[in-house]
Write a structure and sequence with these properties.
Blueprint (H helix, E strand, L loop, with lengths): L37 H5 L2 E4 L14 H17 L5 E9 L2 E8 L3 H20 L1 H20 L13 H4 L8 H42 L5 H6 L10 H15 L3 H5 L4 H8 L3 H17 L20 H15 L8 H16 L4 H49 L14 H17 L6 H20 L5 E3 L8 H7 L3 H8 L8 E3 L1 E4 L2 E8 L14 E4 L15 E4 L7 H9 L3 E3 L4 H4 L5 E5 L4 E4 L7 H11 L1
Parallel strand pairs: 7-8, 8-9, 9-10
Antiparallel strand pairs: 1-3, 1-4, 2-3, 5-12, 6-10, 7-11, 11-12
Helix pairs in contact: 2-6, 4-6, 4-14, 6-14, 6-15, 8-11, 8-12
Organism: Arthrobacter hankyongi
Pfam families: PEP-utilizers
Protein name: PEP-utilizing enzyme
Length: 623
């Protein structure tokens, strides 16, 4: 049977991986495709959000897909009314999250939305600094509110305070109330997330479009370099590692760090000397809040932070210390970036009329003003907020184990958020009445049924897309953040002809470099990266910055010009090609390549291109 390479499969044509049959029952009904919504689903182009969910998600972890795209939709569609874009529709298919940009095409509706957008967005742009300050206060309050949530143990009797203070209700009521608070706070935080994000992208994209129109030959790289050299909070965790490395060298401790021992062993030895104790004091001071930083993107319950796996920051510190000991400069080249930025601005501004130059200045000023939020929101939301959220879910899981309902704490994450609500009602009510929980056997059996299903979903890879792709991908969010361009879609369909010894991606950061590649599947592979190698990964997370001190270049499968990997590589002066689609399948560790971060090309220099078979297999899977 011939394959239709003009489109991807529809949802209803997707087969469950072997062993994962019945996966749909694990998630809320509105997150999975259905016959009722089939006409709408078949009409959209859906692409995988493997940037945030790199593997099939547990039922409870699907809460992120709800909260994220509820927030994105509310602010795009109903609050700021982006003129040509609505929200991003979302589905979970075989455990993976897929999103579809929804466009506004009716000219009258676009014009109506322009008026709403100009009024509302204009207010935020005019008062950006003040409102952004209030946003940070809101986020700090939200994190502290999450932190205050508790799940009181169900003892034989309610505590004396219920009587002594005449509370008039059981302390067990707090279990249900606090669970609802936990969920509501999580959703609220994702509303806050999008309060500024789309406006941040909008400010940059408006400047981007002006430049493209005023300077037809300008490269996307040149435009992005005009807003480079901005000091943002997102670089602070990596800056802390650099400071600790410098402190270790100053105290003569670099050799101690190079051993790569577990932190408990290292700490025990360092406590034996004054210099060691001084360094440990600095290390502990840096940990909160800067090590509350996920090694991935913090969207699933099983991800580690630097604080929960100290081997990650310790390795970064050791690498920086070794570079310092060798006489290398480990500072971010911010002054050079700013000089280059100003030269590019002056060069292009000189080509404009007086009126055009005035508009150029205004739009550039706006782009630079809003740009920090594009990176800083990650610290507040995906890292600090998510860190506390997942801590509280683990406390809730421990509560259910203590109550005798779950055998293991991890079992809780095989329930979705609505099922968990009914379980808590069962546990609390049964305790109050004085009987065993009525659904314990029922849910234990269901959890055991789901475990192999989730394992099968996570063992399978996500097809890159479903549905009929547009002739031209124009959604700015898809292009700028995810790197879903017309060229990438053609690659996924196997129609671009990117065979032979070269393939293309999106120019992420300027520079040309040759060297052997190191293919990393996840953050757990970071210790394998060696100096001088080119890092190849599906996507890099914000916490991978220390690895860029070792790598000479970066290649990713996913991401666009405004993805984290591209932004950080530009700020650190490392060549990068992002959004290649299949680099991790095409390349094998040890192969030599040349990457051109201006042209967005990757050339395989080895005569034996051992990765072609993997690429062909990936392309077939995509179809």
């Amino acid at each position: 049977m011939s394959q239709d390479i003009s489109r991807f499969p529809f949802f209803h044509e997707a087969e469950a991986p072997q062993g994962a049959e019945g996966w749909e029952t694990m998630y809320p009904y509105y997150l999975v495709p259905s016959e009722e919504t089939r006409k709408h689903e078949d009409a959209q182009f859906w692409f995988a959000d493997t940037m945030h969910w790199s593997r099939g998600c547990h039922p409870f972890d699907s809460i992120g897909a709800e909260a994220v795209y509820y927030g994105a939709g509310a602010f795009s569609t109903r609050i700021f009314a982006l003129p040509v874009s609505l929200g991003l529709d979302v589905r979970v298919v075989n455990g993976y999250v897929y999103i579809a940009p929804l466009a506004v095409t009716d000219p009258e509706r676009i014009q109506e939305r322009v008026g709403v957008f100009q009024q509302r967005a204009g207010y935020y742009y005019a008062n950006w600094d003040e409102l952004y300050g209030k946003w940070k206060t809101k986020m700090d309050g939200a994190v502290e509110s999450l932190r205050s949530i508790t799940f009181p143990k169900l003892d034989e009797y309610d505590p004396d305070e219920v009587v002594d203070e005449a509370r008039g209700r059981s302390s067990s009521v707090a279990v249900i109330e606090n669970y609802h608070r936990l969920i509501d706070e999580f959703f609220a935080i994702w509303q806050y997330h999008f309060e500024f994000l789309n406006l941040g992208y909008g400010g940059y994209i408006t400047f981007f479009q002006f430049c493209k129109q005023a300077f037809p030959l300008i490269t996307e790289q040149s435009i992005s370099r005009m807003v480079a050299g901005v000091d943002v909070l997102a670089f602070r965790p990596d800056d802390e590692l650099r400071k600790l490395a410098a402190r270790a060298n100053e105290l003569g401790l670099a050799g101690e760090l190079a051993a790569g021992e577990p932190f408990a062993v290292l700490r025990g030895r360092l406590q034996e000397s004054g210099n060691g104790r001084a360094w440990l004091q600095d290390f502990e001071a840096a940990r909160h809040p800067w090590f509350n930083y996920f090694t991935e993107y913090g969207f699933t319950h099983d991800q580690e932070t630097w604080n929960s796996d100290l081997s990650v920051p310790l390795q970064g510190i050791a690498r920086y210390a070794a570079k310092l000991a060798a006489g290398e400069d480990i500072s971010r080249p911010i002054e050079r970036l700013r000089e280059e930025r100003d030269e590019i601005v002056d060069e292009y501004r000189a080509l404009l009329t007086e009126d055009e130059a005035r508009q150029f200045d205004e739009l550039l000023g706006l782009a630079r003003k809003v740009f920090p939020y594009i990176e800083e929101h990650n610290i507040y939301v995906e890292h600090w907020s998510h860190n506390v959220f997942w801590e509280k879910t683990r406390e809730l899981a421990a509560f259910l184990v203590d109550a005798g309902f779950l055998a293991e704490a991890d079992d809780m994450f095989y329930l979705n958020r609505f099922e968990l609500d009914t379980v808590l009602a069962d546990v609390v009510q049964a305790w109050a009445i004085g009987v065993p929980a009525r659904g314990k056997q029922r849910w234990q059996a269901e959890i055991e049924r789901r475990k192999p299903i989730v394992a099968a979903l996570q063992a399978a890879s996500a097809p890159p897309a479903y549905g009929i792709p547009p002739q031209q991908v124009t959604d700015p969010f898809a292009v700028m953040n995810y790197g879903v361009t017309t060229e990438r879609v053609n690659d996924w369909l196997g129609a671009s002809g990117s065979a032979g010894n070269s393939f293309n991606g999106i120019p992420g950061s300027l520079g040309v470099v040759e060297g052997p590649v190191r293919v990393l599947r996840s953050e757990k592979d970071l210790p394998l990266l060696q100096p001088g190698e080119i890092l190849v990964a599906p996507i890099t997370a914000p916490s991978w910055a220390a690895a860029f001190a070792v790598a000479t270049g970066v290649i990713t499968d996913i991401g666009g010009m405004m993805c984290h990997a591209a932004i950080v590589c530009r700020e650190y002066g490392i060549p990068a090609v992002v959004g290649t689609g299949f680099a991790t399948a095409r390349l094998k560790t040890g192969q030599r390549v040349r990457i051109d971060g201006k042209a967005g090309t990757v050339v395989v220099l080895d005569a034996d291109d051992a990765g072609d078979t993997d690429l062909d297999d990936a392309a077939v899977a995509a179809r």
